C-alpha cells in the first residue's frame, strides 16, 4: 500500500466532504459504505478500491476525473 497516496486521497475526500458540509455519517449513507470506513479512508488507513472510489464520488457528487485530477495536482 502506498501510504502517502492513501493519505493524500483521504485528505482530499475530507476536504470535499467539508466543502459540501457533509458529515461522515451522511457521506457513508450516500456512498452506501459504513460510517467507520469513511473515517479510515480519510485517515489513510485503508487502501480503497476503484469500486469504492466510485461510490465516494457519487456520494460527494463529483466525478472520478475531478478527484484524480486533484490528486495529480497535489504532486
TrEMBL record:
GO terms for cellular component: cytosol. Keywords: DNA-binding, Transcription, Transcription regulation. GO terms for molecular function: DNA binding; DNA-binding transcription factor activity. SMART domains: HTH_XRE. CDD domains: HTH_XRE. It comes from the Bacteria. SUPFAM superfamilies: lambda repressor-like DNA-binding domains. InterPro entries: Cro/C1-type_HTH (IPR001387), Lambda_DNA-bd_dom_sf (IPR010982), TransReg_Diox_bact_type (IPR050807). Residues 13-67 form the HTH cro/C1-type domain. This is XRE family transcriptional regulator. It comes from Flavobacterium crocinum.
